[in-house]
Write the structure tokens for this entry.
Amino acid sequence: MNEDNGKPPSPSWLERLTQLVHTDPKDREELLTVFRVATENTIINEDSFSMLEGVLKMSDMQARDIMVPRSLMVVIEKGTDLQGILEKVIASAHSRFPVIGDDRDDVLGILLAKDLLNYFNPNNLEKDSSQHLMDNLRQAIVVPESKRLDVLLKEFRVNRHHMAIVVDEYGGVSGLVTIEDILEEIVGEIEDETDVESEVAMIEELSDNKWLVQAQIDIEEFNDYFKVNFEDDEYDTVSGLLLQSFGHLPTKDETVVIENFNIKIVEADNRRILSIHLSLLEKPDDPEE
């Protein structure tokens, strides 16, 4: 027998769910609460809830939030011969490649890996096949960094596009985004057997005292790896640290010493530093007292 303690009984999960649905959720958080209650009571499973949450979150996200930054874009330079193109396709395992002219801001079009098949037919392989391939690139779709993901996904579906080049307010290339990148915001990471091989490490140890470092790595991550304490008040990335140290935008092979690090520019374009080689300087022995 239940005792009357003067308090109304707590509503059951079904009553809570019914009340929420019948009163019409007033905002996104109330709608998510409906989904959470349904998940807690196994009306929908956790995976479904995660996807619903991802769909709602997309309307607040922009292309800049998920794009592959320009320094990590796998591109093919105009004039690359067929063998060179094939090697890059095999190494990256990607299916679409921006083709660039003078630099990464000069995107000429998109090369589909499947378009290579005709050119590697021995009966069709001619000396000028590479040039013919470059003359028949797919159009590059360009979107601003501020493009909302839900809008971009709809445009991808309607126009049957799979990749877009992301540009900043000045028209410079910031990176690229694919339909897979957007879908991963809904369903989670989509991994296949090539993903691990194609990832670019932010820090790669080349030898006992030499590393290849991607310049866009966060200062905090850099500090954690090398057990140092560079301040991040004025810059967020190693690229920002280097620009301050050089006092200008450096070019390939320029070097600088910062504290105990000897740094050499491996790759840079006319807008930013992309990657560096880094080695540790030997510390002088402490003088004997």
Notes: The chain has three domains: 13-44, 64-196, 201-280. The mean pLDDT is 81.
